[in-house]
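Notes for week 9. Today we move from apo structures to complexes. The key idea is that a small molecule is not decoration. When we ask for a structure prediction with adenosine-5'-diphosphate present, the ligand SMILES becomes part of the input, just like the chain. The input block below holds both the sequence and the ligand string. Read it once before you look at the output, and try to guess where the molecule might sit.
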Amino acid sequence: MIEIDNISFTYTNGAATGRRILNNISLIIRPGESIAVMGPNGSGKTTFARCLNGLLLPMTGTVTVKGLPTNVAANLPEIRRQVGMVFQNPDNQIVSATVEREIAFGLENLGLPRTDMREIVNKMLADFELTEYRKKSPHYLSGGEKQRLAMAAVLAMRPSYLVLDEPTSLLDPKSRRDILEIIKQLHRRKGKPVTTLLITQFPDEALTADRLIIFHNGEIFMDDKPETIFKRVEELFQIGLEPPIEFALNEILKR
Ligand SMILES: Nc1ncnc2c1ncn2[C@@H]1O[C@H](COP(=O)(O)OP(=O)(O)O)[C@@H](O)[C@H]1O
Ligand SMILES: [Mg+2]
């Protein structure tokens, strides 16, 4: 479980200095949940995501991952292993010279035996359809393949939570579908399902989650099933969001 208890965050540099980017947010993320997060640009989604694994520490309030508070420095290695992060641009995340090295990178720090490590790398390459590129530089992969590699590298560490910050916004429609399918599979996995939090600007992606949280001005504006939230068309329009087309049409036909 991740417990977010009354957190506030303010940047100390840049144009938003002094403004509360997160304003008294409380939330519980339970094991096995599939959560989507939407909100207008600048509503604090990325800042929130970065608080979940201690990349940022809130000024007030606490974030606790499986009982470990993020404001205790000694907890951070375990928290970072438990809460994997995938960002919008895989180029900012991929650091290794070859595809297989990228997947092995995080595992090396876990001190696994070499044979176990090789087995995990092979499995991730196969699961993410990257085996044929294993010796290649990630540089030569397409955007969709790079994002699959970023996910494979993070998931190789067997995190309990996966936070994805607009992972499909730079991808073509086919690659977008591939990434969404991978996210769905994470919940069907036997043994150890991964809890996911997907920040997205695409309402159809949010519809694949069990729970949708809407951010607005650094606060939680709505938190409910996606189907319930998307019926509140007027309120969504007011903060600059749109529901999936079928929900919007329904509303227009009713009038
Ligand atoms: N590293 C940073 N330093 C200073 N201000 C930032 C930084 N990152 C984001 N901000 C500001 O915080 C606000 C919220 O940004 P962000 O959390 O990225 O929102 P979102 O992901 O919802 O678009 C914006 O006004 C942005 O300018
Ligand atoms: Mg963002």
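The two ends are 43 Å apart (CA to CA).
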